[in-house]
Design brief:
The structure is a homodimer. By secondary structure, chain A is of the alpha+beta class. Chain A contains six helices and ten strands, in the order αααββββαββαβαβββ. In chain A, β8 and β9 form a beta hairpin. Chain A binds a DNA duplex through α3.
DNA sequence: TAGTGGTCTAGACCACCTG
DNA sequence: AGGTGGTCTAGACCACTAG
């Protein structure tokens, strides 16, 4: 032996670890089962805890693990498919879409949101801002800020209790005919406020879904929703019944696709 | 002073750092500008390099920074909006959709893909597998594996060169009438193979877009596309012209939405 | 109170790019 | 060759959860 060892250690330790752990999860662990703690795992694999943690972070990012401070690391269930596409309730709050309003306010839209409404509403007054949470299987999967310009809900009743006010704004909004929607998805990290509602730590990876609702030839409402990236798979179209993808066990697909 | 310091150091250093750096990016740096190197930044802020790196990682995750080994850390341009929704070329490869086939093969579908085709094709023979890359602004933004069962392309000509074969399969596919599509988006990390094509390191955060194409009352094709999460914003519908969201400067939206 | 994951440090070496 | 970011180590302490 000696220098004859031609192994390719090009592969970082944490990457190799991730693979090994991932395989172990598929073959030796059941969903919900708790793994040994980080210090023991690190010792068992002969690496520093920081290195072990790098591997765990990746697996958590891929939705295979769930870590909770003070509790432990458990094997995560497959991601939940949550429908965000059209072909459903159309307007926000229409149909049984599992959103729950938890607050509302009237304030000038922040710059990034004002942009969604286009040039027209540049110097607009305060917009109705509704904060909602989306629950699935008794777990919070998303928070959302819904922005509705006063012009979209002209016939609004008197000042009401915060809860009732949100209901009233949505009800008024539904009187309009929805002409179409627009959507964008990007990666982000949870702001402190959102993180708390999603029961995650600040900075946790999230999927930001920005939506524009069109009616009366203009943007009648807009929203920015924050979905937990670890537990959610966003579905569009009638993909509700689509099976999981789960970059998993044999999903590694080590075939030649080459050239 | 002394114990009178009631500051809330609950906020982790890296989180605070991220905020400070983020603000600095907006006010003092131009897109493309290179930041001081990590060792100097760490010293300047009085933290260990690992802590500084945690902040940079977050900013990179949010698409605000771009780091390249051996080169440096630069301020990233706003994310590129790439259209993935319907209302475009419909079939993959139809229209000018900036995809370029770089290889193809016939092999049994991996388990996770076979699932997309439903029960019917459980024990199916090899499927056509086409690997494509999507370019935008001369940069690779996505790689894709397109799976097409032989049944979907019956009239396929003789064995051709790898490149021509991919073209032929797609051309045959276009003869079918597309009845609808299905889509799911989730967070993942780049496999080594994809990472290379996307000019990123293995494990880089990506958005996995799984699509099913329906024709003749069944799934005629399916694909798993891997988009760079740092540089891309996926758009659906006619959101092509939608302005950036950019969780940015004043986007922090420190208003009360409370209850 | 004991045990977990989360944060932080101060170093070291490596892989990669550029001049 | 020199500088960059990427990986890794071996510690320490903190915040949280649970029995």
């Amino acid at each position: 032996m000696g220098t004859t060892q031609l192994e390719a250690p090009q592969e970082p330790k944490y990457w190799h670890l991730k693979t090994v752990l991932g395989d172990a999860l598929d073959s030796e662990f059941a969903v919900g089962e708790v793994l040994p703690n980080e210090r023991e795992l690190a010792a068992r694999f002969g690496v520093a805890r920081a290195t072990l943690r790098q591997a765990l972070e990746q697996l958590e990012l891929e939705g295979r693990l769930q870590r909770r401070r003070g509790v432990g690391t458990t094997v995560a269930p497959p991601r939940i498919g949550v429908s965000v596409g059209p072909a459903q309730g159309s307007w926000p709050g229409e149909g049984n879409d599992a959103w729950r309003a938890i607050g509302c306010a009237e304030a000038p839209a922040p710059a990034n949101v004002a942009r969604l409404f286009g040039e027209s509403a540049r110097d607009d007054r305060a917009v109705h801002t509704i904060r909602r949470v989306r629950m699935t299987h008794a777990q919070p999967v998303a928070t959302e800020l819904l922005y509705i310009p006063p012009a979209s809900v002209p016939g609004l009743p008197e000042l009401l209790s915060p809860g009732a006010h949100a209901q009233a704004v949505l009800r008024e909004l539904h009187r309009l005919e929805l002409e179409g929607e627009d959507r964008a998805v990007e990666l982000g990290s949870a702001r402190a406020e959102d993180a708390k509602q999603l029961e995650r730590l600040p900075g946790a990876p999230v999927l930001l879904v920005t939506t524009r609702y069109f009616a009366s030839g203009r943007v009648a409402a807009a929203s920015v929703a924050t979905y937990r990236a670890d537990t959610c798979r966003l579905t569009f179209g009638d993909a509700g019944a689509m099976q999981i993808t789960h970059h998993g066990p044999n999903g590694n697909s080590e075939q030649r696709h080459a050239s």
